[in-house]
Amino acid sequence: MSFVTVPEFLKRHQKYAETYTPAWKFSDINEKTIQTHVLISMWALVPRSSSLDLPLHFTTIRDGKANLPSVTCLDPRLEPERMFDLHKGEASVIRNVAGRAKSALTEVMAITELAPIKDIMLVHHSDCGATHFTEESMKKLVAARVSGHDEELQSMYFGEIVGGDIERSVKEDVEFLRASPFVKKELTIHGYVIDVITGELKTVVE
Hints:
globular, 5 strands, alpha/beta, 33% helix, 206 residues
């Protein structure tokens, strides 16, 4: 299996954007019109020295035929597999609230330690739910429901995008990963914003 480059992923995305149809806007959400579901996908990575009898999609990582990690939001409107026409074994998709790098740090550390990764694509998107709350407001919402865990709650990070500035959040997260002592300096980290209305992908950081 050969490496798929970032330019190839971007080329595939152009075809996706040409036929893209928007799903909905965050302001459209209410209990009567939209129901969303949460899927938690757990990936297991096995060191290359492992002698376990593994399915094909695990052995490709163990044998050093690396894929490219993408960090993006868990918003159900985003479809990384379709956005970049991903095939099995080509990319590990790390998803969290707003696609924030801080929340994805341990996942980035694990995948880049266990597989020969060269690039990371960080993708945020327009109309993100994280532009509709602040860290303080989210913690107040949770505190109203859960009592006796104030100290633990205050240490949590929910991924607020300050001022609704998506491009700034991408730049902040790319800089966070580049500056982290836990992230390999030889990695190339790219930053993008995808428009959920048009499907177009904008390069923010090369």
